[in-house]
Amino acid sequence: MDSTKTALITGGSRGIGNAAARALVREGFRVVVNYRTAEAAARRLWEDLNESYGMGCCRVYRADVADRAQVEALFRFAGGVDVLVNNAGIAQQKLFTDLTERDWDRMFDVDVKGVFHCCQCALPYMIHQKHGNIINISSMWGQVGASCEVHYSAAKAAVIGMTRALAKELGPSKIQVNCIAPGVIATEMNADLDEETMKTLREETPLGVIGKPRDIAQAVCFLAGAQSDFITGQVLGVNGGMII
Ligand code: NAP
Fold first, then answer.
1. How many domains does the chain have?
2. Considering only CA atoms, which residue is closest to atom 46 of ligand 1?
3. 139-188 tens-digit pLDDT
4. For ligand 1, which residues put their CB under 6 angstroms from it?
5. Is 181 within the bounds of a domain?
6. How confident is the model at residue 201 (pLDDT cuts 50, 70, 90)?
7. Which atom of ligand 1 has the smallest separation from the CA of 16?
8. Which CATH number belongs to the domain containing residue 186 in this structure?
9. N or C: which end of the chain has fewer CB within 10 A?
10. Looking at the domain assignment, is residue 141 inside a domain?
């Protein structure tokens, strides 16, 4: 446990980011949790964590990761960040032929440029400290591609490419950069999928279950902690065996 380290999690108002924030506080990190719209949910998280683990263990801040000025303000609010979890993301299901340029741009603005903005804002402190840890949340679809999610798959593949290249560039500064590629996880992101589709996805998963946000949160804690000190540039699949 290291109570002096600060972790910033983007998109932490719900789903995987929320579970990661809770898990990191349990591990002794102070967390700064970013959200874009879900103010009430972010406030609930703030209240829960500060009541349970002591005032100051969690701070929340509203910002759109696609907007550079808002991300810069987020990092001024956060102060030095030791662990950055680039989790904020959007998904969309549409035939490739129906995708608009606006769909494509928004997907890349949030899921790729958001990671770019956050990494650039986090790095001056990390490079100065000669330590730091960046954990990007990609997707198994970034590894193998998903039908009707071409822009999402391309964006998540870009995050894997950024992870590998940044790990090489930042290794000499003792900064780790890794990536988690979740399988199907029960969050609002999948709320539109009908029961039949969820059943099929469950059956296609060797472990026979849909993942939970805490499955990803535990992987985040592993990559954020000392047990993974010699790991960088890797893509950790947390997918019940869906992609092997
Ligand atoms: P979710 O339940 O839809 O939550 C998404 C989170 O991202 C919310 O907190 C949302 O904030 C935030 N967000 C969205 N756009 C944002 C923006 N422009 N700026 C800042 N925050 C933004 O999604 P999830 O399932 O937890 O997914 C988290 C990450 O895991 C995503 O990167 C996703 O692609 C990835 N992933 C998920 C699955 C899955 O099956 N669920 C699988 C593979 C990968 P507000 O609520 O405040 O708008």
1. 1
2. 38
3. 999 999 999 999 999 999 999 999 999 999 999 999 999 999 999 999 99
4. 10-17, 34-38, 64-66, 87-91, 110, 137, 139, 182, 184-185, 187-190
5. yes
6. very high
7. 26
8. 3.40.50.720
9. C
10. yes
